[in-house]
User: Fold this.
Amino acid sequence: MPGADGLALVGRDGLVPDQQYYIRPGDDLDIKFFYTQELNDTAVVRPDGYISLQLVDDVKVAGLTPQQVDDLLTEKYAKHLKDPAISVIVRSFKGFRAYVGGEVAVPQVVSLESGMSVMQAIYRVGGTLPTANMESIVLIRKGSQGEPIPYHLDLSDEAIAAGRPDLQVALTPSDIVYIPRSPIANANKWVQQYITDLVLFKGVQLGFGVNYIIDRDDDGDN
Assistant:
């Protein structure tokens, strides 16, 4: 639910609402068998969405969540194994990116690795500038209809020391991380330049004004 400032809150526990990940062609999968480890395998999802595994041959996994693939493989291997306890892990994403901008050393698009956190992505672009406001980081994530949804993250030293789990928030494909100055000036201009013009949100009409979701200096200083 949006907060009083119009920004969708991360929540009192600091967590961004869960977003299901759907497996796509090019993903690397680890297939782990708890009792029959000799069947452990790795598989790259082919362009047709299938993977090839021992005993069950080709299985279509693209468009499914890891849990759904887990359930599907458990069903298929139940015909061959007494207790097919299986775990499916997405080891790496192929071609998925996020953008990190604002008060960082080198604003840029970064390639995502499985489980990469917001803080890790910030380190990947060279860290923050001295002018960075780590209390008011904005994470913009695509909604179910492709619309951008903003969330607030507090990655200040004080928040991390207090145990807020914002540090553990993992990025998903097409996320945008903006580290503002304190305060932000000309926020709407930034929205136009860095969000609506990015291919990540081409053709998507923004439904919020960043100048209302981030605290502004009433004097309008940069």
The domain at 97-213 is CATH 3.10.560.10 (Outer membrane lipoprotein wza fold like). The chain has five helices and ten strands. The two ends are 29 Å apart (CA to CA).
